[in-house]
Design a protein that fits this description.
Length: 339
C-alpha cells in the first residue's frame, strides 16, 4: 500500500495526548491476543491497516490475532503470521505484555519481536501493509493499547541513573564517561540533595554533554524545570506520581515514574506515562525505606503494567536478560555504570 495512506495523528492530537488506560474489568476474562513485531533488514517494522468494518476500524495495527483453544502464544503467532502475511516465523522473543480494557472488552496483548522469518510478507487478507521506521511509529494512529508496544520498541534495554552529584568527585567527567559508553541512549539525572537552583545549573551542563554524544536526558524534577532546561523528559518520584492523574507533558517528551507497589504501577499506566522504574529488586536504592521485591514479585507487578518496566535496585547491564525474562524492558542502573 501507499505509505502515505496509513492513518496518522492529526495536529490536534499532538499536544498532551490521551494515552490513559483502564485496569482490566473483573466482569469478563481478557481475550488473549498475540502480536508480532516483524522487522526487515533495514530495521523497519511492518504495520497493517485494520478493516474499516471491524473493532477499532481504520486504526493502524501490528499483525497478530486471538489464541485458539489450547494454543501456546508462539504457536498462535506462527499461525497468524502465515495466515495474514504468508511468512514462516523462525525465531521470536518476548517484547512486552499489556493488559487493557476497552469499553466493550478486556484484552491481554502478548507481544513478540520476530527476529527471523522466511518468505516475503504480503497482505493475504486484503489489508494494506507498510514498513515504517521505529521513530515514525509514534506518528501513526494506533489503538491506545499499542502505546506501550511503540514505546518498548523505541526504548533501550539499559538506562543509567546518576548517583547524587555531591557524592561523586569530578561528577561531570564521570557523567560524560557514562554517556560515551556503547549502547547508552538515555540517561536520568538524579540528585535530590541539590537545591533547585544548583540542580538546574548542573542539569544544563549535563544536557550540553548529552547533545555532544546524541544521548537523551531525563530530569528527576518537576515539570517547571523543563522551562529552564529543555531536556528530553521528566521522571516522577512516587510522591509526584501520586499527585498525577493524567500525563503532564506532550508526546515530544518522555515521562516516567518510580513505582514500588501495584497501585503505583497501575497509576503510571493509567496516566499514559511512557515507562516506569520498578523496585528495588535486589537491594535498597541508596538506603531507601522500601524492601527489595525479588524477581518473582517484580514479574507479578510488571505483568499488570501497560507500559515498559525497568528493574532497579542493585542491578547492572549483566541483569538485562534476567529482567526481560521476568517481563521487564531492561534495567535502570546506578552504581554498576558509574564504577
Amino acid at each position: 500500500m501507499d505509505h502515505g495512506s496509513l492513518p496518522r495523528l492529526r495536529e490536534d492530537q499532538r499536544g498532551v495526548p490521551d494515552l490513559s488506560v483502564s485496569p482490566l474489568s473483573s466482569a469478563a476474562p481478557p481475550v488473549h491476543v498475540v502480536v508480532g513485531i516483524v522487522e526487515n533488514s533495514r530495521g523497519e517494522i511492518l504495520v497493517m491497516k485494520r478493516r474499516a468494518d471491524g473493532h477499532l476500524g481504520g486504526h493502524v495495527e501490528f499483525p497478530g490475532g486471538k489464541l485458539e483453544a489450547g494454543e501456546f502464544p508462539e504457536a498462535a503467532l506462527q499461525r497468524e503470521l502465515k495466515e495474514e502475511l504468508d511468512i514462516d516465523m523462525c525465531r521470536c522473543r518476548p517484547l512486552i505484555q499489556i493488559p487493557y480494557s476497552y469499553a466493550d472488552r478486556n484484552v491481554f496483548l502478548d507481544v513478540f519481536r520476530v527476529s527471523e522469518y522466511s518468505g516475503r510478507a504480503r497482505s493475504v487478507e486484503g489489508q494494506g501493509i507498510a514498513w515504517k521506521s521505529i521513530p515514525a511509529l509514534g506518528d501513526l494512529y494506533f489503538p491506545k493499547a499499542n502505546h506501550g508496544i511503540v514505546r518498548a520498541l523505541q526504548l533501550p534495554g539499559l538506562i543509567p541513573v546518576t548517583p547524587g552529584a555531591e557524592q561523586v568527585q569530578d561528577f561531570l567527567q564521570h557523567f560524560e564517561d557514562t554517556v560515551r559508553q556503547s549502547g547508552v541512549e538515555l540517561i536520568h539525572f538524579r540528585s535530590h540533595e541539590l537545591d533547585p537552583r544548583h540542580y538546574l545549573q548542573l542539569a544544563g551542563d549535563c544536557l550540553r554533554t548529552c547533545h555532544r554524544h546524541q544521548v537523551r536526558l531525563v530530569l528527576n524534577a518537576d515539570a517547571s524545570s523543563l522551562k529552564q532546561v529543555d531536556a528530553d523528559g521528566l521522571h516522577l518520584t512516587s510522591r509526584r506520581l501520586a499527585a498525577v492523574k493524567t500525563r503532564p507533558l506532550g508526546k515530544e517528551y518522555l515521562v516516567s515514574a518510580s513505582c514500588h507497589t501495584l497501585d503505583e504501577v497501575l497509576r503510571a499506566s493509567q496516566a499514559g506515562l511512557d515507562y516506569l522504574f520498578l523496585g528495588p529488586v535486589r537491594e535498597k536504592v541508596f538506603g531507601g525505606p522500601v524492601e527489595p521485591l525479588g524477581w518473582k514479585h517484580f514479574a507479578r507487578l510488571a505483568r499488570q503494567s501497560a507500559i515498559p518496566v525497568y528493574a532497579i535496585g542493585g542491578l547492572g547491564p549483566a541483569d538485562i536478560d534476567v529482567a526481560i525474562a521476568h517481563g521487564g524492558q531492561g534495567v535502570a542502573a546506578i552504581r554498576a555504570v558509574w564504577q
